[in-house]
Amino acid sequence: MSEQQHVLFDPLLQDLSDRARDEVLAAFSAVQYAAHPVAEVQLAGLRDVTLRRHVARMLKLIGRTLVHVDGTHWTAGYADDIAATLTAQGWQPLSVVDRAVLVLVLVHSVAIPAAKGS
Amino acid sequence: MSTASSSEAVERRLYNALWWAKVQSAGPLEVEPDTPAVAGLTRAASPDGSTVWLVPTLPSGAGHPVLEELGAPPVAVEQPNETARVLSICVACCWTDRSGPAWPGSVGTLAQIRSVYAGMRGRPEQSSDLTLIIGSLRRLHATHWLLWNEKAGEVRLGPRVITWTAADEATLRDLCRHLPDPPPAVLSSEPPPPEEPESDPLPAEVADE
Q1: How far apart are the first and last CA of chain A?
Q2: ipTM, 2 dp
């Protein structure tokens, strides 16, 4: 299967130089798939405002958005409008067990500290 | 651009974005074959054609392979070596016609996997092997690299293998040659047809048996 053409992203990427395209794709991959938020200084695709706008546009095409973390790092999350639409449609990809685990994590990491006033 | 066609474009973008959000949150999705195409999601028809898997694809230069170069590791896989070993064994068992693409491949069995696993380790099966194999099969099923039917003890390649490029498949073909040959599959769900004289010309390795 040839990956030379990508129907969704190519219209966004075709006007970029090879170098800019690589920077944008690297930044896109890092915010999408790295286990942790990535430092802005580390990637030209995040440092450079014009390139970062391309990353944001790529993310928008797939229902995601750039999220600034601590003013120095970036990651990606679901765009609010997309999340709201899917929730309204009853979209629920998590199993009951996974949801139960998530509730426990929230209780311990958010609810209990908040109740203690910390 | 007229208002009608621009609102159509907006709708199309939203349609794509919603499907992409779905496959990102749930992994590749099995849908009705008449579901309209989604830009960037490759369609992998199930063997009987009754459903289609939607699998995300990225432009070359994007995705997990880039992360290593960036020193920004992805979310870790549990038991990565064991899991990779079991995936390679399943490729050897399920990709029987290696002149064609890996998807959809054929059904392999747990007995085959155990046999190749022991052969790969170069020793008889140990009791801990099965735990490791089953754990890996479950992990690979959850991530759609395999479709593992635990009840029947049967496995197929998962829809994600549709994203393997010709170069990937060449590497895997080579890998399969280095693995012990799996024994013939004995399927519980559908017994093999009795004799089929008019079937396709047999690959060489079957004639050797």
Answers
A1: 54
A2: 0.89
